[in-house]
């Protein structure tokens, strides 16, 4: 186990470099299309968030409750738009025909995508955000909070491909999460490494303001789709180009139907 962990930690930076390079190249080639798609996605969410703020301010007066309610009230639209945007990126990265209308096709498999987003939102607030809501506490309490944060990122990595399984295989939320856990079995270290990188890219984009977010979001989602295809070793996989001679993917028990 320690040997594999060491192997994955050594392989991860090399893989990351290759995946980022490939994602940057895809983004460069499709830049006008990507920026426009991300703009449509972002502007809808911005309008919805600003609209919901007035309702939230009337219901709650404390900042923490306002943030919690705002995230919850906007979750249905966020789920809808993320569903459509992921469909767009799956087609684009795989060099299939794309259309901006795909971004607004979040009604497909919507219930399963919404339930997954709700599940993630609950885990985020209970295991991660909770860690920053308390002041000075006992050492034991801080250890428990720290373990909760670690558990959150582990679950985030293991459930990462749930939306793709919902979209591609028309699975319900329970089966999709199960498939994602099986899919990432033996690859947790690599997946967590890529998850942190995606979060970092989005955070860096925020610092560069709006255009930066649109660009960094494109790279992060491209990496996500590329990683799925490499793990799956499907016909869209670019493993030979971006993961060549790196035996980081063990024989997996996919448990296909």
Total beta strands: 0
Number of domains: 1
Class based on secondary structure composition and strand pairing: mainly alpha
Low-confidence stretches are 249-257
What is the radius of gyration computed over CA atoms, rounded to a whole number of angstroms?
A: 19 Å
Give a brief outline of the structure.
With 257 residues, the protein is mainly alpha-helical. The protein has helices at residues 2-29, 31-59, 63-93, 110-128, 139-158, 162-169, 173-183, 188-207, 209-232, 239-242.
What distinguishing features does this structure have?
10 helices; single chain; 257 residues; 75% helix; globular; mainly alpha
How would you explain this protein's 3D organization?
The chain has ten helices and no strands. The chain has 257 residues and is mainly α. It has one domain. The model is unreliable at 249-257 (pLDDT under 50).
List the helices and strands and how they pair.
Blueprint: H1 2-29, H2 31-59, H3 63-93, H4 110-128, H5 139-158, H6 162-169, H7 173-183, H8 188-207, H9 209-232, H10 239-242
Helix pairs in contact: 1-8, 1-9, 2-3, 2-9, 3-4, 3-9, 4-5, 5-8, 6-7, 8-9
